[in-house]
Amino acid sequence: MTGKKIQHIGYIGLGIMGTPMAINLLQAGFRVTVWNRTASKCRSLKDAGAGVADSPRELARSGPDAICINVTDTPDVESVLFGNQGVAEGAQPGLIVIDHSTISPQATQRFSEQLAEQDVTLLDAPVSGGDVGARRGTLSIMVGGPKEAFDQCLTVFEAVGERITHVGGPGMGQVCKACNQIAVSCTLMGVCEAMALASKSGLSLKKMVEVVAAGAGGSWQLANLGPKIAAGDDQPGFMIDLVLKDLAIVAKSAEAQRLTLSGTEVARRYFQRAADQGHGRSGTQAMARAIERINGFTYPSAESPAGEGSGGMDGQAAI
After folding, report:
1. Alpha helices in 83-153 (DSSP H)
2. Is 304 domain-assigned?
3. In-domain check, residue 86
4. Are residues 88 and 42 in the same domain?
5. DSSP assignment letter at 112
6. At what angle do helices 172-201 and 287-295 cross, to 10 degrees?
7. How far from chain centre, in Å, is Cα 285?
8. Is 177 a catalytic residue?
9. Are residues 166 and 147 in contact, defined by beta-carbon separation less than 8 angstroms?
10. Bridge partners, residue 31, by sequence
């Protein structure tokens, strides 16, 4: 690894998170070249001044100092890296790959070893903070991999995030993200169940959120998603389909460590029920719709008088 200053960045994966993150890199003064499987999604970056590559291989051949990846799942990362016309076919020695995707820790360690054979370094750097954090450049970034490469890429991370932490060797960023998804999912479950009790009891949801958020029960989930639940706003910052993917990674990691995570499994079942109701592409706060259906009520608007609401009874079902 040369330790040279990062100036040219490749970016692969221009979705809800990747697009604003790539734009923030441009605005920070980096030269950016992008590639996305759906080419039309490159248009906004091209208009902002980014170059556009025809494939991950060609992007790697364009000579970036680092390539950021932000795709959906483990097979997608593997395909981008090692598939036909993948990064590995065009990678030059000294390249650093920064994977912002949330994928398997075990696969990440394997990818790191494969890339090292070409003198390419992998940093697994999943993020937390949702689309809002991506747009504002305030993401939390948990990074696994060699500390030297982390230090070299710090200016890259600072362009897209606020809390940036090197958490250990290859794969440890993904382990940390799995821990984050456990905490997020179980906290959201508590928020949804608390709001269910408030609603059924006739307590103003708006007042409940304000009071509880200011005390020991406060959380990002309550303060940011509680009002959306009350208002019936299911627009995604992070989709249920994606959190289900993440919780499948958690389950495999827990199995590998012989851990039983009962609360996380209950949260997963709530998410799965919401997805089965057609909310897979809704925001994670749509977990509340599963709780509504199970208990036969609807949350009243946070601005309306508190009440029990109404809704067809779907029967008490095991979660």
Report:
1. 87-90, 105-116, 130-136, 147-152
2. no
3. yes
4. yes
5. H
6. 40
7. 15
8. yes
9. yes
10. 8
Q: Which residue has the tokens 């009891």?
A: 201
For the chain, the straight-line distance linking the first and the last C-alpha, in angstroms and rounded, comes to 50
pTM over the 0.85 mark: yes
Domain count within the chain: 2
Shared-domain flag, residues 153 and 15 = yes
* Tens digit of each residue's pLDDT (9 = 90 or more) over 35-78: 999 999 999 999 999 999 999 999 999 999 999 999 999 999 99
Q: Are residues 135 and 264 in the same domain?
A: no
* CA neighbor of 70 nearest in space, from 126, 26, 27, 110: 126
**At 62, is the secondary structure helix, strand, or coil?**
coil
Which domain CATH number covers 211? Answer: 1.10.1040.10
CA distance 235 to 16: 12
CA angle 40, 45, 46 (to 5 degrees): 80
**Which residue in the list 177, 200, 245, 252 is annotated as catalytic?**
177
Same domain, 25 and 110: yes
E strand intervals along the chain: 8-12, 31-35, 51-52, 66-69, 96-99, 121-124, 127-128, 139-144, 161-168
Are both 111 and 162 inside the same structural domain? yes
